[in-house]
Design goal:
The chain is of the alpha/beta class and 104 residues long. It has one domain. The protein has a 4-stranded parallel β-sheet. It is globular, with a radius of gyration of 13 Å. The relative contact order is 0.16.
């Protein structure tokens, strides 16, 4: 099912699953949707390990990191490397300069 949304995010179906469970985000991503992991639930060192595991288990498919609090955006954006196919989603205003770093 193609749409502007699926084309924008590089997914097969327009299904987004917001969860604090990495296993759920991985399964939704591998099924063609966008698994969105709640990053605010984890400490930075634990989140880095989880994201590495997600990278391996999603086999290059894009996934999302849901950041609820603005202070977490500054911790999460540096974890995103060019090899990681993920998006950062937040309703909070981003700390100055964070958005620019995330778009590189």
């Amino acid at each position: 099912m193609r749409s502007r949304l699926t084309d924008m995010f590089g997914i097969d179906v327009p299904i987004f699953a917001f969860t604090h469970k990495p296993e759920v985000a991985i399964e939704v991503t591998n099924a063609g949707g966008m698994g969105a992991l709640a990053a605010s639930y984890y400490q930075p060192d634990e989140l880095e390990r989880i994201l590495t595991d997600m990278d391996e288990k999603t086999l290059g498919r894009p996934y999302c990191i849901d950041v609820l609090f603005a202070n977490k955006v500054g911790e999460v954006v540096p974890m995103i490397s060019a090899s990681r196919r993920c998006f950062v989603f937040s309703f909070s205003p981003s700390p100055r300069g964070c958005t620019d770093r995330g778009h590189r």
